[in-house]
Amino acid sequence: MSDTLTPADVERIATLARLELTPDEVILFAGQLTAILAYADQVQQVDTSGIQVAPAAAENTAARDDRPAPSLDRDRVLTQAPAADRGAGLFKVPRVLGS
Question: Domains, the chain, ranges and CATH?
Fold first, then answer.
């Protein structure tokens, strides 16, 4: 990839993310994304050879035990939901993908 994202690059990324951008947004985001990638490259150039890595979190922190706890009554919650399939025990939500 080049050092600078072109408007065509941003439009391709927007298409993959299913975003609709105005021409002004394409230009704005091209500059912003280029700056973000330049910063990420700058961070990767930092010499970390002398840095010691801390032990894994599981080794030096105590986690609580995973114990079952009382929860809401499913039938009661489903009767109060605006759209629910009580037979399946599920909430109905608006379609997000493919709409």
Answer: 7-44 (1.10.20)
